[in-house]
Request: fold
Amino acid sequence: QVQLVESGGGSAQAGGSLRLSCVASGYGYNRYCMGWFRQAPGKEREFVSSIGRDTITRYADSVKGRFTISQDNAKNTLYLQMNSLKLEDTAMYYCAASSTKSCIYNYWGQGTQVTVSS
Reply:
């Protein structure tokens, strides 16, 4: 059974940095895509970034140039380095994984809260 556990969230000032981690267990040979999503209060969950099996990365326009997604396959860990944080980055951040070639995310973590203040 696939489990995703996020960590690294917390509070930061605008302009600061945080790094999120997501440790995946039970997710190996059927790994296709992994990604990060976020949900702010009163808003729908939105895509932040993803990395495919071919290591191709994608980013939402709102975070492009500020966030970097990476993975350490030896540690089964996905990362999201967040720099130049803005107030609007405040949200619950979720790690997601897909076991399908179409990258439909079918596994989700519990989330880690990121709060950016001025």
